């Protein structure tokens, strides 16, 4: 008889592992909605229209931060000297050979730019003193002494809105453009008593 092969009993199947319950996954926190992007600081530069009073106010702040020079200096936008800075803060385009209606619109815009800038500076320093520069212009024309920068300022604007500021004064005014010249808003930072402040 042929011997039967050794019978190997099958290995018992191990019991299934217990199922481990999983924790529910928390939903990812949603990012808060983003608001409108903040405008970039600063503003356009140069004598062409810079886009409104905020840029003009930034220019005035820049003037305030600059030290006064020891001697008079002239730049493309103004003049500085011992104890003062004076600069153009806003200007229209040139008015040569433009339609009279466009020239009138530029002058109106200049008035609006000045009013908006006065409101911004007044929010910081209170109501301004409005100082007429007719006397300074007349004295300068007669060769009589006029303290700087009023002798320069009176040739550019008929009056200024001025604010005292701890031994200094801040002033802005809208220019009286010569024929064909841009309308402009001028700003001043100067040491000394406030002109027209009594």
Automatic annotation (TrEMBL):
Which residue windows does the record flag with biased composition (Pro residues)? 1-21, 33-53
Locate the compositionally biased regions of type Low complexity: 22-32
Source species, domain of life? Bacteria
Annotated segments matching region Disordered: 1-56
Q: What is this protein called?
A: Uncharacterized protein
The source organism is: Streptomyces yunnanensis
